[in-house]
Write a structure and sequence with these properties.
By secondary structure, the protein is α/β, with parallel strands linked by helices. It has helices at 6-19, 33-40, 49-60, 76-79, 89-95, 126-135, 156-176, 194-214, 241-255, 272-285, 298-308, 315-334, and strands spanning 25-29, 69-74, 99-103, 108-110, 118-120, 140-147, 179-186, 223-224, 262-265, 291-296. The mean pLDDT is 97. The structure holds 2-O-methyl-1,6-di-O-phosphono-D-mannitol.
Length: 338
């Protein structure tokens, strides 16, 4: 099975190298309209194009952000917004020395009427959209498939359908010269123990790599963005950071070929401290064949958002909190290289 053109693939490899610079990680700032409204609402911030723009400008303008952040995942709206000086966000981010990317999925819908499982939409017309995003300056893309877990879920049907969608998306990205960030997420909601979480994560990753092979995706030009293997948030079990690191690495070693250059974890609702510790412990364990880093949304942003609260007067303090978290994550991701 052939992969994309040589030129497109060269672009992808170049972007992968820039994203996986040792000790740097990704900032996921691609909240869709519903998600950002849910994050703003408890803080009394109305979600409008203007407040979303102000918030993203506050994040991206953090002094020295590029020392710790290699790439930023944007939401489609942000791609055509400008900073206070009138610079388009993707151009401004590039000038800061950070690679701009774009979330290209259209979100999840129930798998069928009444189903509690979901499938991610957005494949129709994707090839054309990818070409447009590339013209707007995006160098990489992201698609998230979501797997729900409980005593009876997930079904193989949902696992395979989400895996096949991720693979088709990834192939179209590489054909366009965009690096696909492949995000298969087993949610941490629920009362499952860590062993069940490991089993489901393994089943999902096996299906994803089967689908990637079948679609002719070049593994050297992807970044995997998986969940960590943790017990369900409602399980009440307290597990050491070392065990989370061990269980996660065991699953990844079983399923992820060493040809994959990097794994950039999602935080999935873990606290910022926990998401930092878990990454640090995995990196400390050493001997992983892929670069390990972060691609966090909430674990990078929540502390800063809580301080900013939509007020210009709080910008400096919020930015100081964000850079401190980014620095801690950078250090966690860099231990293996120390
Ligand atoms: C930042 O949130 C992203 C967008 O979510 P929606 O499409 O649901 O609005 C999300 O995909 C994010 O990129 C990843 O899940 C990682 O975020 P967390 O908060 O889990 O680290």
């Amino acid at each position: 099975m052939s992969t994309g053109s040589e030129d497109a693939m060269k672009k992808c490899i170049d972007t992968v190298c820039r994203l996986l610079i040792p000790g740097k990680g990704l900032l996921a700032a691609d909240e869709s309209l519903g998600t950002i409204a849910r994050r703003f609402e408890p803080l009394g911030i109305l979600s409008t194009p203007g407040t979303r723009r102000d918030y993203r400008e506050m994040l991206f303008a953090v002094p020295m952000l590029a020392q710790h952040i290699s790439g930023i995942i944007l939401f489609e709206e942000t791609l055509s917004q400008t900073n206070a000086e009138g610079r388009l966000f993707p151009d401004w981010i590039s000038d800061l020395g950070i690679v701009p990317g774009i979330k290209v999925d259209r979100g999840t819908v129930p798998f069928f009427t009444g189903s509690r499982e979901t499938i991610t939409e957005g494949l129709d017309g994707l090839s054309v959209r990818l070409g447009e995003y590339a013209l707007q300056g995006a160098k990489f893309a992201k698609w998230r498939g979501v797997i729900h877990i409980d005593e009876t879920l997930p079904t193989m049907n949902a696992i395979i359908a989400n895996a096949v969608s991720l693979a088709r998306y990834a192939r179209l990205c590489q054909d366009t010269g965009l690096v696909p960030i492949i995000e298969p997420e087993v949610l941490m909601d629920g009362s499952q123990n860590i062993i069940r979480s490991a089993d489901v994560t393994r089943a999902l990753l096996e299906a994803v790599f089967d689908a990637l092979y079948a679609a002719g995706v070049c593994l050297e030009a992807i970044i995997l963005k998986p969940n960590m293997v943790v017990p369900g948030a409602a399980s009440g079990s307290s597990i050491s950071s070392g065990e989370v690191a061990q269980q996660t690495l065991d699953v990844l070693r079983r399923c992820v070929p060493p040809a994959v250059p990097g794994i950039a974890f999602l935080s999935g609702g873990q606290s910022p401290d926990m998401a930092t510790r878990h990454l640090r412990d995995m990196v400390r364990m050493g001997s992983a064949p892929w670069r390990l880093t972060f691609s966090y949304g909430r674990a990078l942003q929540d502390e800063a958002l809580g301080v900013w609260r939509g007020q210009a007067a709080n910008i400096e303090e919020a930015q100081a909190i964000l850079i401190a978290r980014a620095k801690a994550l950078s250090a966690a991701a860099h231990e293996a290289d120390a």
